[in-house]
Write a structure and sequence with these properties.
The complex is a heterodimer of chains A (375) and B (288). With 375 residues, chain A is of the alpha/beta class. Chain A contains 15 helices and 8 strands. Helix content of chain B is 37%, strand content 19%. In chain B, the strands form 2 sheets. A 6-stranded mixed β-sheet of chain B has the order 1-4-3-2-5-6. Chain B has a 4-stranded mixed β-sheet with strand order 9-8-7-10, sandwiched between helices. The longest helix of chain B is centred in the last third of the chain and has 23 residues. In chain B, 51% of the residues are buried. Chain B is of the alpha/beta class and 288 residues long. The N and C termini of chain B lie far apart (56 Å). The chains are: A alpha/beta (375), B alpha/beta (288). At the A-B interface, α15 of A face α2, β9 and α8 of B.
Chain lengths: 375, 288
């Protein structure tokens, strides 16, 4: 069953093209997980997250600053290389300047039928954040209605919420298995599932998740790895090769705080009479991206609670090079984890990960957490 | 063929007082580094023999050569060794290793034996990287940092300068102090750029001892920042080949404000020694 998710992740562009041919529907590329996909599903549009390919850069230098994060440059490179040539629309919800630059450069150089910048508030802790986002999502809904040529009814919106909620709830269920002493799904496979979640039609993904969960509840295991329990957190991370390397040296990634992973699905929409407001509330209250995690750092208690829940022994703290919001948070997060007896390893990521250099760091980190009896 | 000034002396040693046949556990650590390889043989935890030689292009062969040289004239063969631990960049290429352990853990463990259990900070200045390591009283790593993306501040960088200036590598340290005053450091971010800068200084008429002083100074500055990031707690020691270069050791001590501990052991065998100590523990663990 895992293979299905792997195939989706590996053949993401072909999947979207096939979906389009099969359904006749529109495909929307999106840059940040603050985009309210509920509205897109309400409009029968397939949301596909723009991600990089982890190949050395060769096309972005003329379009984006070199000191913008490798992820934002890698995303833009995919557009410039024509790999998302099937998109009908492109959008972003405000998160950080780097990914916004990738979006604006994309809209300038790669024509699509529809483009939308959703001003997601950064100060999500302000009492004005939810009413502000409610109004912005309402404006987005109207723009979308104009583009597709039909009204989105509350029934449509409710349908969008149901599709997203069901899928997110199943991901939660999958993660409960990762609390086991011997998690039946590896960290690398979990990442395949999490990446495919952001680009495959949620209804198909949900069906596959149900089948996988049925297998797991029947005792099936896809992983023989029962190494040291690790959490990975920090900047955007879809580097499966890195997670595979960590797990090849007897680490087991059981939890994460990334926008590919738990931050994407951790909370659900709790529908009220005003459906758009309930969607806005979900995005305001979700585990925050560090660009929005102020004045209080709400991620720290969230990460500590997750570490305890998943019995984490060590945390690998990742920062995409030049990612200032994460960099600013790292000292505080590291201090909090260490105060709770969770050792940390900091690694700076680039488009291509230097596996050899990182491997020795990860191995040494795992040795720090193991083998007391050798001294 | 022009003289290669970077070529440091290879050597081996064996104890005259220990008879390995009297020991219960013979363990071996093989450290295949990017520039040098060492083999250390312990008999019941006591240093019995070792070798240190340059790593060739074939890591398994380097490991075998280092092992064979350490065994030379001992009457011991590989079959008499109970446990072998491979470490260093080529650790996975030690064909006869029972287990691999990173050089970070091994240097901390080795330094604990070489300098005593008061050691809390180790700077391992290796051939192509540099590691600042913190450890506890047992020699177990509590934290570490490695240099990133650049070989400045490493043994290979020093070899490049020895060759450029035609100074035998063993003389670099002392010669770097034969200056009227400490020159400003050369570029510390890249060996290649530093070499370009040094070539310019030579053209300007700087004597070579002043240029090598400028490079030793740059190297010290660079590793001090690495140490400061992790926090230096005494006792502090330097392992690896650069630990033998007084041009770096003294400047570092000055910048940090305290002396490094001294030892009768060879600082270059710290990794292999740590590996051999782990090997002993693993052999005894397997036996029990």
């Amino acid at each position: 069953m895992i293979d299905k998710f792997v195939q989706w992740e590996k053949n993401r562009h072909q999947y979207a093209k096939d979906w389009k041919a099969r359904t006749g529907g529109k495909v929307m590329g999106y840059f940040c997980t603050y985009v309210p996909e509920e509205i897109l599903y309400a409009a029968d549009i397939l949301p596909v997250r723009i991600l990089g390919s982890h190949e050395p850069h060769d096309v972005t230098e003329a379009h984006i600053f070199g000191m913008y994060c490798p992820f934002s440059r890698d995303c833009l490179a995919q557009g410039l290389k024509g790999r998302y040539d099937y998109l009908d629309g492109i959008m972003i919800a405000q998160s950080c300047l780097h990914i916004r630059q990738a979006y604006t450069s994309w809209t300038k150089h790669i024509p699509v039928d529809f483009e939308y910048y959703l001003p997601m508030p950064n100060n999500v802790q302000s009492p004005h954040a939810t009413p502000y986002l409610t109004e912005e999502i309402t404006q987005f809904r109207k723009a979308l209605e104009k583009w597709i040529g039909r009204e989105l009814t509350d029934e449509n919106i409710q349908n969008g919420i149901d599709i997203m909620n069901e899928n997110r709830a199943l991901m939660h269920e999958l993660y409960t298995y990762k609390k086991n002493d011997n998690p039946p799904v590896s960290g690398a496979d979990t990442m395949e599932i999490a990446i495919s979640q952001q680009m495959v039609d949620k209804r198909e993904h949900t069906q596959a998740l149900k089948e996988l969960l049925a297998e797991l509840s029947g005792g099936k295991s896809y992983s023989k790895n029962s190494g040291t329990r690790l959490m990975v957190l920090g900047s955007e991370n879809d580097d499966i090769a890195f997670i595979k390397m960590v797990e090849s040296v007897n680490g087991t990634v059981v939890a994460d705080d990334h926008c590919i992973g738990t931050r994407y699905f951790w909370n659900n929409v709790k529908p009220n009479e005003n459906l758009v407001e309930s969607i806005a509330t979900r995005y305001i209250e979700r585990p925050a991206c560090p660009s929005k995690d102020w004045i209080d750092r709400t991620r720290i208690p969230h990460i500590l609670s997750m570490a305890k829940e998943f019995d984490v022994k060590g945390a690998i703290v990742i920062q995409q090079k030049f990612c200032d919001p994460h960099e600013l948070d790292i000292p505080a997060i590291t201090k909090a984890l260490q105060a709770n007896d969770i050792k940390t390893l900091f690694l700076e990521f680039d488009v291509t990960v230097p596996i050899g250099q990182f491997k020795i760091r990860v191995e040494a980190f795992l040795e720090m957490l193991q083998e007391d009896d050798l001294f | 063929m022009a003289k290669e000034f970077w070529r440091w002396k290879e050597y081996n040693w064996k104890s005259e007082t220990i008879d390995w046949k009297d020991g219960n556990t013979v363990s071996c650590g093989i450290d295949v580094g990017s520039v040098s390889s060492q083999a250390v043989i312990l008999v019941d935890g006591e240093l019995y023999a070792y070798s240190s030689m340059r790593t060739g292009s074939d890591s398994p062969m380097s490991a075998t050569n280092a092992m064979n040289w350490a065994l030379e004239d001992t009457g011991m063969t590989q079959d008499n060794v109970h446990y072998v631990v491979g470490t260093g960049y080529g650790r996975v290429n030690v064909p006869f290793a029972n287990k691999t352990i990173t050089e970070i853990a091994c240097h901390a463990r080795g330094a604990n034996l070489m300098y005593g259990n008061t050691v809390r900070t180790i700077l391992d200045m290796g051939g192509q990287d540099c590691k600042a390591i913190r450890c506890d009283e047992k020699g177990k790593v509590t934290n570490f940092l490695m240099n990133d993306k650049c070989a400045a501040g490493t043994g290979r960088g020093m070899e490049v300068f020895a060759d450029l200036l035609s100074i035998p590598i063993e003389d670099v340290g002392e010669l770097s102090f034969q200056v009227d005053e400490e020159p400003p450091p050369v570029s510390s971010t890249c060996v290649v750029f530093a070499k370009t800068e040094a070539t310019g200084l030579l053209r300007e008429g700087w004597p070579k001892n002043k240029v090598i002083a400028a490079y030793c100074s740059a190297m010290s500055h660079r590793v001090v920042t690495l140490l400061q990031r992790i926090g230096v707690e005494s006792d502090f020691v330097i392992t690896g080949g650069i630990g033998k270069n007084v041009g770096i050791v003294r400047r570092l001590s000055q910048e940090l404000g305290f002396e490094t501990l001294k030892t009768n052991y060879d600082s270059q065998i710290a990794g292999a020694l740590g590996a051999a100590l782990f090997g002993r523990a693993l052999a005894e663990k397997a036996r029990n």
